[in-house]
């Protein structure tokens, strides 16, 4: 399982768990909060009505009072209301009045007159000067049928002579409770979705940073000259990337020096041995011909050593670079023409063909690209027999240009194909049997890589084809 997916799943489980717990906690508080608010309103209502009925109750005129008539009219009243989308076509408030013994004297519903309510909690506690309230199921088998009762005392002076109770069914508040719970769950689902999107974005952002570091490590392991990645708003990953970059430079520097010392030592052994042998022979009495031959050998080997050192220094400089210096748009055909003109004295033994060059440009350093083209053309000329054909073409390849150089001649041996771009590896030239420094193709590959391109060398029917690919400007 990918690292980013693990982070996202962990974040998802955490957010989902917290969301469910929060929604349950808030949801569990909705119903009690609504009922508490209702009870507060019923307290004021009960006390207001107790004051309103007090004079008629004490005078014994309760049944014929305007209050009793108002209650009957209230019970039959249609509010014709629409409260937040909930239609109200009836009233729910029920009023009962009991005497000092708890007997019901008045019931707005007309159902409990004459019944003994003295043991009901609301009446019992109110007659004793306490706050009386209760919640009772209208249907014992239905938990949603509860009715809230709140009582207030009817006084004659300081004496409690009766109790007025107002009742309201809790199911009358259920539509509002359900609506609130629905809004809560919808808001919770929306917040959860937003949280998951943020989590997905965070996981992608973190995973992308780690992926960039991984790709950087792989590219470094493959020897590619990649830049140290930089991360916006992530100081830790930036610091880690810089540490990896510093480690790369130190390790590459150590390995680079060791590799070059070994390679240079190996390559210089042969010319140094030849120079030493020639120098020892020069100490003897030699005729003029032999003396000149050994002096010429020393000069040739010295020049070869100088060429190896120069190539190595240039290759080391290129491989240490991470970017181009002052690149410019260059016409690839124009560069090829310039190199062909410079190599004209060496190309007379073969036939050079090419079609008109395209007008497309590549971005790069003129000196380096000319050197890469020169190395490829020189290599092709060295392996083209007298009278052989050398064909050059420039074509578009994807988002870049491809310079292909085909030379007639012998095929590259299979054992040599994977080693062509190794430093100091070279094949004997057909004409002379001598080898080159073995650094030309390695230098050309370094130039191509620095320009964001690539180079290949492979057998083709009747000869060998080199392909240099460079991105368009």
From TrEMBL:
<dbReference type="InterPro" id="IPR003661">
    <property type="entry name" value="HisK_dim/P_dom"/>
</dbReference>
<feature type="domain" description="HAMP">
    <location>
        <begin position="204"/>
        <end position="256"/>
    </location>
</feature>
<dbReference type="Pfam" id="PF02518">
    <property type="entry name" value="HATPase_c"/>
</dbReference>
<keyword id="KW-1133">Transmembrane helix</keyword>
<dbReference type="InterPro" id="IPR005467">
    <property type="entry name" value="His_kinase_dom"/>
</dbReference>
<dbReference type="InterPro" id="IPR003594">
    <property type="entry name" value="HATPase_dom"/>
</dbReference>
<feature type="transmembrane region" description="Helical">
    <location>
        <begin position="184"/>
        <end position="206"/>
    </location>
</feature>
<dbReference type="InterPro" id="IPR004358">
    <property type="entry name" value="Sig_transdc_His_kin-like_C"/>
</dbReference>
<dbReference type="InterPro" id="IPR050428">
    <property type="entry name" value="TCS_sensor_his_kinase"/>
</dbReference>
<dbReference type="GO" id="GO:0005886">
    <property type="term" value="C:plasma membrane"/>
</dbReference>
<dbReference type="Pfam" id="PF00512">
    <property type="entry name" value="HisKA"/>
</dbReference>
<dbReference type="InterPro" id="IPR003660">
    <property type="entry name" value="HAMP_dom"/>
</dbReference>
<dbReference type="InterPro" id="IPR029151">
    <property type="entry name" value="Sensor-like_sf"/>
</dbReference>
<keyword id="KW-0597">Phosphoprotein</keyword>
<feature type="domain" description="Histidine kinase">
    <location>
        <begin position="263"/>
        <end position="473"/>
    </location>
</feature>
<keyword id="KW-0418">Kinase</keyword>
<keyword id="KW-0902">Two-component regulatory system</keyword>
<keyword id="KW-0812">Transmembrane</keyword>
<keyword id="KW-0472">Membrane</keyword>
<dbReference type="InterPro" id="IPR036890">
    <property type="entry name" value="HATPase_C_sf"/>
</dbReference>
<keyword id="KW-1003">Cell membrane</keyword>
<dbReference type="GO" id="GO:0000155">
    <property type="term" value="F:phosphorelay sensor kinase activity"/>
</dbReference>
<protein>
    <recommendedName>
        <fullName>histidine kinase</fullName>
        <ecNumber>2.7.13.3</ecNumber>
    </recommendedName>
</protein>
<keyword id="KW-0808">Transferase</keyword>
<dbReference type="InterPro" id="IPR036097">
    <property type="entry name" value="HisK_dim/P_sf"/>
</dbReference>
